[in-house]
Amino acid sequence: MMIRKQILDVIKKHKRFLIAGHVNPEGDAIGSQLAMANLLKMLDKKVRIINTDGVPKNIMFIPGAKSVELFRDLKNEKVEYEVAIILDSPTLDRIGDVKQLLNGKYIINIDHHVSNREFGNLNWVDPRCSSVGEMIYDLFKSSDMVIDDDSALCVYVAIMTDTGSFRYSNTTARTHQIAAELLLYDIDPKQVYEYVYETKSFNTFKLLAEVLANLKRTDDAKFIWFKVTNEMLSRNKLTADCCEDFIAFVRMIDGAEVVAFLKEMDNKSGVKVSFRSKTDIDVNKIAEKFGGGGHKAASGCVIEKSMDEAEQMLVSVVEEAIRKNKGPKN
Predict the structure, then answer these.
(1) What's the predicted TM-score (pTM) here?
(2) Is the Cβ–Cβ distance between 96 and 21 less than 8 Å?
(3) At 329, phi and psi to the nearest 5?
(4) pLDDT for 43-82, tens place per residue?
(5) Separation of alpha carbons 49 and 17, rounded Å
(6) DSSP codes of every residue in 268-303
(7) Which of 262, 265, 299, 329 could be 284's S-S partner, Cβ–Cβ 3.0 to 4.6 Å?
(8) Bridging pattern class, strands 223-228 and 216-217
(9) Tell me, what DSSP letter sits at residue 101?
């Protein structure tokens, strides 16, 4: 593919690279960043991964996870690099504070979100891919480098998490083919699954019980949502990354067409919202109304309002989307 050759040509011409991804990173963001960093190192490049938010505890087992730096720890350090590689982020705003490091530098944008704004000097955006991890796998294949055990595990975690363990609609035959090849490396799928999905604290389950006891839904039960506030996290001595997969439980509810998770931001300046669609309702379009985006079946945004105001706005917009979806089809 021509775009992969162009990316590799740019990489070959430069020495120092910055890798960054979206705020509140998950398996695909971290896994693809670490695999990309490994590829660069194989090509004898200098690389730093700098994110706004830290690596979630459930994927700290990935090789190289401790090498991920946080913007807030830089303490005004001047970061020397020539090319920024932004992964798994539809817009530059989604990388948070790290955006301050870009300073007009050359940007390679690699993403699979249909909502990507193609903000880079070089843009590789492919919504057909299950994950950015799948794209980094393809980049390895286009290079002269052979994927190693550590990179294979990083890519496997990226693909597994973004497909919901190969359950979501973005899972394709090719996704399974890639996963099958990765399993030829030193990967224990059972152990990986346990690390990612089955290592939760007692307090996390207490919080989940509270969330499930306070679910909200519209009168027709087509839209179901739940919220997690800073007070709830503090009371249970938890951090925000513990509840990112709560939405998977709520998504199981029969009859729900759209599910949303509302998380109060640390400084109470707004509410982070994650959407999931179980029908053909396009939640990417819903998220775009609030300046966010993502995929048709899974998207997110930030609403700079109080929790109560955000809830009211969401109910109105989602109900309208559900109502329009029931209208006549051309």
Answers:
(1) 0.90
(2) no
(3) -100, 140
(4) 999 999 999 999 999 999 999 999 999 999 998 899 999 9
(5) 9
(6) SS-EEEEEEESSS--HHHHHHTTT-EE-SSEEEEEE
(7) 299
(8) antiparallel
(9) G
> Which of 158, 178, 197 is the last residue before a domain boundary?
197
Mean pLDDT of 247-263: 95
Q: Domain with 57 in it: what CATH number?
A: 3.90.1640.10
Closest CA to 135 of 84, 178, 176: 178
Residues in the chain: 330
Q: Establish if 236 belongs to a structural domain.
A: yes
Smallest CA-to-CA distance from 300 within 312, 308, 315, 289 is with: 289
Q: How many domains is the chain partitioned into structurally? A: 2
Asked if 217 and 166 sit in the same domain, the reply is: no
Domain end marker among 178, 197, 216: 197
DSSP H or E segment with residue 231: helix 230-235
Rounded distance between C-alpha atoms, residue 118 and residue 293, angstroms? 13
The answer to whether 325 touches 279, Cβ cutoff 8 Å, is yes
Query: pLDDT digit string (tens) for 136-160?
Result: 999 999 998 999 999 999 999 999 9
- For the cut 80, the answer to whether the pLDDT of residue 326 exceeds it is no
Return the sign of the alpha-carbon dihedral for residues 184, 186, 190, 196. Answer: negative
CA gap 196, 175 in Å, rounded: 19
CA distances from 184 to 153, 178, 266 (A): 11, 10, 42
Cα four-point dihedral sign 272, 135, 121, 150: positive
Question: Does 250 lie in the same domain as 211?
Answer: yes
Domain limits for position 54: 2-197
* Nearest-angstrom CA–CA distance, 98 and 23: 9
Q: Are residues 175 and 216 in the same domain?
A: no
